[in-house]
From TrEMBL:
Residues 64-86 are annotated as: Disordered. It is found in: Endomembrane system; Membrane. It comes from the Eukaryota. Belongs to the methyltransferase superfamily. SUPFAM superfamilies: S-adenosyl-L-methionine-dependent methyltransferases (SSF53335). The keyword Membrane applies. The chain crosses the membrane at residues 21-42. Its main location: membrane. It is a single-pass membrane protein; Single-pass type II membrane protein. This is Methyltransferase. Its EC number is 2.1.1.-. Keywords: Glycoprotein, Membrane, Methyltransferase, Signal-anchor, Transferase, Transmembrane, Transmembrane helix. It comes from Salix suchowensis.
Length: 492
């Protein structure tokens, strides 16, 4: 068989030599050979993206300086496949061990293990002669009533111990001591459904995902949330925004055009956010709003915000600083947030002052702004007096909305009479230190170098290294701006 096949193939070769096709075959062979050679030369870039199949004549190469470099653009090689000899974790003595407890499981994985072993305990499987031993603890599922459990906010034991005359203190963080947290799996609400996608979620969410009717019962008459069959709907209006949230935002823009949502104002904080309609409608205007509200009698308002697709956190103005650095927000908003800004020498407004960027805006929509009752007028006067003393510029008042602007620098702070209240904070009070730090009844000085006051407009701001970068503690002491630019380039 073999000899005859060789013979016939050599005959064929002879035939090819006679035809012009032979030339093509040679060309293709040489071409393939050069491709293979290239692959051999640049093994780290094995993908065609680095091997150009277009023909470049030597003349063109001479004309194009960018081709002078013989190496094609290098792409990072894929990480080498490492075959683990041993897997495990490092134990408390620093030694590798394969004896460890896995704490959390996917529910389906739990089932599988339960089925494998018939309950609590250890399981061994033998595969390819290797023994895999898995030891696990089986968690029970908690009661239905824990479905909204937040460890540091629902620490009932600790909250009972607190001095209840402390008002909102009970809504601050009180994390359980070690070993006192839940030891069971928090169940999802019954009938939980896949969330409605944005932007539809701005206006409706599944009742089964946030099964709390309390807010509707209390606020239903006010038209900012309603229950309709199996969904909550958010009309985007209500007492907070009488003519709807969009109209409310238009009014603010007209009152103070410099606020320029989406350009000058990019990051906002909404205090006492209700169901976060302010943030939901600002998203369309390219403003990222963080909405905060306590987890209080109105169940967890934050859950509504998150289910709608609006960034939110459970937080309360009470005795501690909020968990944001100084000069974090371009705008801070409070509409009927029922916070008494002037009580306790304005300590809560001083916290707003700390978080507000130099030149940032504070928007207050509340009854004292427009109602003529004597006590409300008194509140308005107190507010005007306090904001003047902390050097905020009163920008405008229209209808039920009042707007102030924080100073751009320390000049007003320093020109106040000695003994003026509230005092300036100690210069060693770090305005960015917030974790379990108490509120202070004083005004944070702005950085003398003007950091924070000068931000460019969005989206240019995204590419301009923030001043703050120069003052934060980090390992790289030099070239922060360069690092910022390099990283932005990589991400592009
Ligand atoms: C030189 O090469 C670059 C990139 O490969 C290409 O964009 C450019 O058009 C070339 N210029 C000439 C004159 O060939
Ligand atoms: C576990 O066993 C039960 C009953 O024997 C079965 O219905 C279930 O599908 C099993 N689960 C898995 C993940 O194999
Ligand atoms: C509770 O707080 C009030 C005022 O804040 C204080 O007068 C009272 O002594 C406190 N009681 C206890 C038991 O700490
Ligand atoms: C929001 O930003 C996008 C992308 O930069 C832009 O196309 C859009 O026009 C902006 N929308 C508004 C309302 O400014
Ligand atoms: C300080 O800020 C005020 C506005 O808050 C401005 O009018 C004034 O020019 C600023 N002074 C300096 C020295 O920048
Ligand atoms: C303000 O920002 C602009 C550009 O964003 C920059 O050129 C200028 O130097 C900045 N000024 C200060 C005082 O930081």
């Amino acid at each position: 068989m073999k000899p005859s096949s060789t013979a016939s193939s050599s005959t064929a070769t002879l035939d090819v030599v006679k035809t012009p096709n032979f030339v093509k075959v040679i060309v293709i062979t040489i071409f393939s050979f050069s491709v293979i050679t290239l692959l051999y030369l640049f093994p780290s870039s094995p993908f065609p993206s680095s091997i150009s199949f277009s023909v470049t004549t030597p003349q063109q190469i001479k004309n194009n300086a960018s081709l002078v470099s013989p190496r094609p653009k290098k792409t990072l090689p894929p990480p080498p496949l490492t075959v683990g000899e041993r897997t495990g974790i490092v134990d408390e003595n620093g030694a590798m061990t394969d004896d460890f407890v896995i704490g959390e499981f996917e529910p389906s994985a739990m089932d599988e293990f339960r089925n494998l072993t018939g309950g609590r305990g250890e399981t061994s499987t033998k595969e390819d002669g290797k023994l895999t031993r898995v030891k696990y603890e089986r968690f029970r599922v908690c009661e239905e009533s824990t479905k909204d459990y937040i460890p540091c906010l629902d620490n009932v034991e600790e909250i009972k111990r607190l001095n209840l005359s402390g008002g909102l203190v009970i809504y601050e963080r009180h994390c359980p001591e070690e070993g006192k947290g839940l030891d069971c799996l928090v169940p999802m609400p019954k009938g939980y459904k896949k969330s409605i996608p944005w932007p539809r979620s701005r206006d409706e969410v599944w009742f089964s995902n946030v099964p709390h009717a309390r807010l509707v019962e209390d606020k239903g008459g006010q038209n900012w949330i309603a229950l309709k069959k199996d969904k909550f709907i958010f009309p985007g209006g209500g007492t907070q925004f009488i003519h709807g949230a969009d109209q409310y935002l238009n009014q603010i823009s007209e009152m103070v055009p410099e606020i320029a949502f989406g350009q000058h104002t990019r990051i906002a904080l909404d205090i006492g956010c209700g169901v976060a309609s302010f943030g939901a409608f600002l998203l369309q205007r390219n403003v990222t709003t963080l909405s905060i509200a306590p987890k209080d009698v109105h169940e967890n308002q934050i859950q509504f915000a998150l289910e709608r697709g609006v960034p939110a956190m459970a937080a309360v103005f009470s005795t501690r600083r909020l968990l944001y650095p100084s000069q974090a927000f371009d705008l801070i908003h409070c509409s009927r947030c029922r916070i008494d800004w002037t009580h306790d020498d304005g300590i809560l407004l001083l916290e707003v002052n700390r978080m507000l960027r130099a030149g940032g805006y504070f928007i207050w929509a509340a009854q004292p702004v427009y109602k003529h009752d004597e006590n409300l007028q008194e509140k308005w006067k107190e507010m005007q007096d306090l904001t003047r003393r902390i050097c905020w510029e009163f920008v405008k008042k229209e209808g039920y909305i009042a707007i102030w602007r924080k100073s751009l620098n320390n000049s007003c702070y320093l020109s106040r009479d000695s003994g003026a209240q509230p005092p300036l904070c100690d210069s060693n009070d770090d305005p960015d230190s917030v974790w379990y730090v108490s509120l202070r009844p004083c005004m944070i000085r702005l950085p003398e170098n003007g950091y924070g006051a000068n931000v460019t407009t969005w989206p240019e701001r995204l590419h301009y290294p923030p001043d703050r970068l120069q003052s934060i503690r980090m390992d790289a002491t030099f070239s922060r701006k360069e690092l910022f630019k390099a990283e932005s380039k990589i991400l592009e």
